[in-house]
Task: structure prediction
Amino acid sequence: MRLFKILLLASMTAVLASCNGTAKPECNDGHQLWFYSMDQDGMNLSEEKTTMAIAANEVREYWHGEQAVLFNVLETKDDVLGPEGYRLVFGKDAVAVDANTETGILYGTYDLLRRQETGKVLKEGTVTEVPAYQYRVLNHWDNPDLTVERGYAGQSLWKWETLPETVLPVYEEYARANASLGINCTVLNNVNADPVILTPEYLQKVKVLADIFRPYGLKVFLSINFASPKHIGGLKTSDPLDKDVAEWWNKKAAEIYSVIPDFGGFLVKANSEGQSGPQDYGRTHADGANMLAKAVKPFGGIVMWRAFVYDPQAPDRAMQASLEFVPFDGKFDDNVIVQIKNGPIDFQPREPFSPLFGQLENTTVMAEMQITQEYLGHSNHLVYLHPMWKECLDADTYQKGEGSTVRDITTGKLHGRPLNAIAGVANIGDSTNWCGHHFAQANWYAFGRMAWDPELSSEDIADEWIKQTFTDDKDFVDPIKALMLESRENTVRYEMPMGLHHTFSSEGHYGPGPWEGSIRPDWSPKYYHKAGPDGVGFDRTMNGSGNVGQYHEPLASLYGNLETCPEELILWFHHLPWDYKMKSGETLWDTLCHTFQQGIDAAAGYIDTWADVRKFVDEQRWNEVNVKLIRQAKDALWWRDATMVYFQTFSNMPIPEDCSAPQYTFEELSKVRINITNYETPDLDVLPEYEL
Ligand code: BDP
Result:
């Protein structure tokens, strides 16, 4: 048994004193993430860049328990722990971190420190942790020109123009942050992939990042452009059944692995939103995915093939992915995973789970969540997203009868599939505070914790994050946790209640634009809400598009039947008259108005809650969050006004008296043009000024 003994010094008292309670350093730019309670005197990273040295350094610098910490890399491998699990054995004088691998030791170390910061160190006993998903993946939508698609936290973290020569400290800090959560894979570039990423020049840049990430257990993947053989390979075609094309990919894979031996594999967006794909050559998703899978297979790589496809002619976009993918069930190679967005449309604040999860029985599938807040107020709104993701993972598909949750399908448990993964579209940029909003860090955190353990509750994760990022004072933790836990539902209420969706302005999906049309019907809000004199909502019942039929019973009936359809999804599945009587006895119109009002009131309430806890937070973070909360409360009003005054042109019904009166008319609001030139600070001056 290899034994590492770390002797602990009692030198942490000074740090401790400023960690807890009401300490308020003036300036705090949020760069320390959830290491704040630990790292206030600065980040002291290991000089030596091996996994064990990193783990030992974390203990030496930050552990201030009485017990010694022992690292045991097990010589006789423990079947339960696998390659990444660990065991913490708490005793009177020592805590042992046991694992089969050094990466397991590192994960155990971060768990131990998290316990210390959140008051969960045990006096005695054993904790065994094994990740539920093998591949816990961040998808960066970063472009070589440093822009980030749907990024609201500045520019790309990867400074391609100065790589490979210049190595920034944030690269390692990023790896450390991910390791502390157990995130072990990162796709560096946008799914709308520039072929340049596979050129030898860029592979040298990627190599530098991969080398920095490796001791932190973080593997690099790349999004590829399916037409790369044509663009950068000098071939006439990128047809997956063409021998030269397959050979080009085989050679490219060998080249990549010669530079990055532990390269993870490819992420592919094909035949979607203008991206090239096998269908350009009359081939199928399976043909395309399998060709790539064969290229990376000899090196242990995988292919994550996205199911985000839809076509402008389709009668119901929510049905598209299933229609295209179900025919290929069982036809994908064993190192292909089909990556499915949580909902059938596109990362809306609320969608039912994608029916495709329950429809593929012989294909490995994974879920893709969006951490960046494309449709949830960008990095201007405080929205804690874990409840939304958990809603999807906990959803029962009834694929094999009751209890066939999306979680059990994607962890491989339901079908006994050996490969499993989960992905989140990152919200990280080069802003000092990483995510643009101090509270958006909680979503990166929550994604990582969920990918390790999808059964953790939203509350427990929020609790951990708050204590490490701000303070463990109960008078701060309780109200802020309550605010975070309600924030997603409130955002649904002020943006698109009761199953409305895609009512967003096409300008960066920020703000309302329910009146907008588009050259493509499926890019137009009108296509989704279908508001007209006769009512509102998308009829997806068997009398409508038939989308409910893609769900297994009892869901098909549950959603299809007005009596049983959950009210929060009623306009997703049904088209109803404005004066439709809801279960409460109120009309649909009044319920919509009241739900919006609840969202508006709650958003305004965040400002008061934040004022109440001011004494616990440093000036910088308090002010930066406060400015954003005011913006959020005003945006909530704007969203409600725009949606309801527009719908009123059809319903001709009054806004109920117990709701606040709209501050602007439809004519005024429909002229608002927001210019999103820089995602971090969208030009909000053009917005109507709102009285709170
Ligand atoms: C949509 C985004 C678009 C992405 C696309 C995708 O608006 O920018 O490229 O998803 O996931 O949500 O590929």
Remarks:
- The domain at 492-538+575-686 is CATH 3.90.1330.10 (Alpha-d-glucuronidase, C-terminal Domain).
